Amino acid sequence: MRTSQELSAALPLRLALYLWPALALLIGAALWSVAITRASTERTRAEQAAQKAAASYAEAYEQYLTRSVAQMDQVTMQLKQSWEQSRNPRLLEELKRDGMFTDVAFVAVNIVDRDGRLRSSTRPHERAPMVAASAWFSFHKNNNSTALRIDSAPDARVDGRRVVLLTRRLDDRDDEFDGVVQLAIEADYFTAFFSRATLGRGGMVAMAGADSALRVERHDDGAAASSLFPPDARHWPGAAGVRLVGADQGFADGQAHILGWHRSGAYPLVALVALSHDEVQEAVALYWRDSRNNTALASACLALLAALATVLSRRAHARLREQDEVRRAYRTATESANDGFYMAAAVHDDQGRIVDFEIVDCNERGAYFYGMARSALVGSRLSSVDSSLFGEELISTYRAAMQAGFHEDDRRMPADNRLNITWGHRRLVRVGNGLAVTLQDISERKAHEAELQRLANQDGLTGLPNRHWLINFMPGALAQARAAGSELALLFIDLDEFKHVNDTQGHEVGDQLLRAAAQRLTSLLRPTDHVVRFGGDEFIVLLLPCESEQQVASVAQRIVGAFGAPFALADDVQAVGASVGISMFPRDGDDSATLIKHSDIAMYAGKTEGKGQYRFFDPSLSTILQSRAQLKHSLLDAIEKDQFVLYYQPRVDTLSGELCSMEALLRWVHPQHGIVSPLDFIPLAEASGLILRIGEMVIDKACAQLSAWRAQGVELVPISINVSPKQFARGDVHRQLAGALERHRIAPTLLEVEITESAMMGEQDEIIAELAAIRALGVKLHVDDFGTGYSSLSQLQRLKMDVLKVDRAFTSELGNSREGKVFFQAIVSMAHALGMSVVAEGVETEEQLRILQGLACNEVQGYFISRPLPAREIAALIERRFLFRERAPALTAYNL
Fold this sequence. Notes:
It is a single chain. This protein has 896 residues and is of the alpha+beta class. It has 27 helices and 33 strands. The strands form six sheets. An eight-stranded mixed β-barrel has the order 24-25-27-28-29-30-31-32, surrounded by four helices. It has a six-stranded antiparallel sheet with strand order 8-7-6-11-10-9. Strand 6 and strand 7 form a beta hairpin.
């Protein structure tokens, strides 16, 4: 039986038997709890990182697709222009011989005519396919759009290679369908973005049609023979996004994938990127396995420590040996890792405050990051290693981690050539009186993210910031200006005549011009200002800060003046101007969208009044543009509701006053505003293209009125009709005339056509052909408003016109100056020598009539004879026939 002394001596030993295992159990439970929590956190982080990567890759892939298709788009535009100008059957062979289609991506380039027959090809010796029944051919044939169309090839492969078809409509000179230019591009060209090193095992990409069945894919095994992506586009709704698609939710391989998508803003395409969800799970599982093994090892160590402490609690050398074993186990577990591991012990002052940290252990990888040997780093204090590398900021972070127990962040390392890491992901965990620090090298990932950010915000052609950058930058700039109470100016710049350069010199010269314009703009501004390529030939300049409107006007004037100088490009010189619209913050708007819109309005208003100038925004400009838009809408409604009528102004013999003909003049009878002057709506009709429909309507109305008078028994005289330059340039006036004459059964001699000089300034061969076609109908041709254009004697002789109508500006000079009479006499003599009759427009006085009688002018027209009258009133003048009060030369005007 034990004595009380023995029981008292045995009690501490008995307590030790239970104390150490209990502590080990508690610590082990805490370690497992931390391991499980961190594994769950790592799983969430890995999922989020994978989704972010899928979204970034999808956006980068969309930009790659847009650039690739844009290059092919430019090729089709060049081929369309070359073919429509030359119609050379060997065009594609010659271009290929010249090295245009050497890229292996071009499987075949074809031009087919309106019947689907092959007209030119880069593979001329192969059997010509008939494509008239294909969907893309039918689409281009039945639609006026010349936009690029993207399709899958019907047979999917050419020469064993899967291809994508890019097609564009061809037009003849009458803008009628004339065939299709077709590019057969190897499908792998559009999926070359794929990289297993980037997307990982099981990753894949696909180019899908936004509104078609087009699908081109690539994965680990190369180009997919069959589609692995979900067939239903509902898996990628909206412009961009990312989602997890389960194993049973759409992918043909039956695996779960993280799907990222991004729609192209320029083409009906969707860029799809899929990352293997299993690979993400494997990485998480690997992390859990390592964490579990480390925790199990730590638990085993705790158990061993508890056992040793229980048995050898009084032996200090056993404790030291056990600590050494634990340290060796830690180093074995960390030396083979790619991350840097550090153990930092807190150093306290006399008041217990943490003043520094000592690195008590690290692995070789961790020492390598800082360009030091492990032996030199271990035992050093943070403050003494190198203040330029660590310093007080790092010590403050370590103190915060000690207080919170945990800290994690991404840190850009200081710029120092001794460091072997640029970006690091730090994780600090408090362990007793120190920190366990893990440093992961994420430099490559950060560099990739920075490159993606640069691509998203930089214009690829000029290197300037793009629209995306501007939209993101403006809110901050406005907030800064608002807080400082300063002004900001936005200059909207549009290049004058750039379209002409692009159309006549080609897109390559146009691109060179845009780059030169960007450099010239940048050279005119301060370092604090910004130049943005907004799109096409439009640039935006941000002046911030700006001191006054005078300063902004000075900059705008400097820009306009600089663009007045031509651009030397290659071996040629190109001249373009600049029109500038200006909006000021906060006067003209409080947000970026309003400021951009108002500067655009100001630019457009200035360009309308005359190119090559700058203009500040004025609220009245919006009202003017809105009124023009309303007038255009009303004009279109007037055409649909037939609110137009014809007035007629007589043309009489100069000597006898006998009615010879009448000019049909268009009037708009508005239901609310009454008669609208042609001066108010004809320029708008010309600018909007509605003049084509109006002109055809005038021809029909004039013929219909002649038919109505004939039915009433009125003795008919010819009616002359004005044809606008746009009608004449289109080249189908003779067909419209022939149709109206046949429809109303009117003799061609009762119809005359008046054409201004400006309408005859185009291609001479086409003009002569159109005039000959009109003359072949039996319709007379008049040169209207002669003297206001640039007609030459040789041109009038070559065009063989019947009547020359002298502009009222020259008639008004008769009786005012001797030069006016001499000039008019010269016109009459020239016209008679060419076999043309002469009509004087705008005769308003008896004196003018007497002079014209003396000059042998054939006919006169003007208010002295009669103002324009509606059909019901002009019938009386037709019946009267002779419109002078007397038939002698000394006449008194009959003025209505």
